[in-house]
Amino acid sequence: MHIIVAPDSYKDSLSARKAVSAIANGIRKAIPSAQWDECPMGDGGEGTLDALIMATEAERRCETVSDSLGRPRLAEWGWHFVSRTAYIELAEACGLQHLTPMERTAMHSCTYGVGELILTALDAGAERIILMLGGSATNDAGAGMLRALGVRFLDDKGRPLPPGGAALSHLDRIDLDDFDSRLSKVIVETAVDVDNSLVGDRGASVVFGPQKGASEEDIVILDAALAHFADKVAETLGEDFRELPGSGAAGGIGFAARTFLGAELRPGIELVMTQVGFRQRLERADLVITGEGRLDGQSMAGKTPIGIARCAREMGVPVVVLAGSLGEGWQSAYNEGVTAVLALVDGPMKLDEALIRCSELLSDRSESVLRLFH
């Protein structure tokens, strides 16, 4: 029996690479003779960089940049010298996982560090940049990233705006005179993990603002500020991508990447599957085991397990999803090619305990799956 082990990370507990090891341990216990293909995955959020570096054998590099609150942070990125490709994961610079719940502030957090990583890639001679957007602590529509790249955002008195999405409500003029000219010669692709628009009921602020510390009042302010930002961008560049699926990814940085960098917005899982040759791996597979921390209705918008299931369905390969928890709407996964879904928790358990025991629970569920399929 040949199994593809292709989980995403289990947030606040296991990286995708460690999840692969836990699942493999369960397979080993159930069927010692089984063969498996270790394929850690990602959909643009935290951990996607690891998956791409493993698949492409890119060099792992580090750079000190600003986190979402402007503090120095050592962030990793990938450099593939032969293809002159840089792999940049937003979450490395300004990911939500780097903040405590008390530090989360969607009103003022900033993507400046992402721009600093892009500058580092340009200095290295990058001709192509894969920008992974997901897991952000920010809601500034990518304004911080653009500021690092030389764009100036000014109020009606010609003063630079302070960091953060809320400040965009005071934007009067966009100055592109110092925008880094090297970007016009670089191909930028973005891996997005959601298909939300920039503003509105399915926009960045309304849907994702609460998990980044935004109150109901903050959400109203942020949504209006991002709409005003889109108005000013349209006045300056003559294009308006606020309704484009994925423009609301990572607090709206998808909008900035498409508008200012000319980036193609691609579902992150599709881009990663292409990079790791997932379809080719499926040709000799009997089963795929995937999973992530939570499976719910929002997962259908492009999360890792669903992207994998859709691909595997085309080739008639069964897919089992091992989810840390199940939320409203998870049953829709069965319409997307998922064969079975199992939650990791096996009884009454506090979240802290579940996070600590995630590896053990993942191994146990994998063993159960394999005993069923064997």
TrEMBL record:
Gene3D superfamilies: Glycerate kinase, domain 1 (3.40.50.10350), Glycerate kinase, domain 2 (3.90.1510.10). GO terms for biological process: organic acid phosphorylation. Keywords: Kinase, Transferase. It comes from the Bacteria. Pfam families: Gly_kinase. GO terms for molecular function: glycerate kinase activity. Belongs to the glycerate kinase type-1 family. This is Glycerate kinase. It comes from Vreelandella glaciei. The lineage of its organism: Bacteria, Pseudomonadati, Pseudomonadota, Gammaproteobacteria, Oceanospirillales.
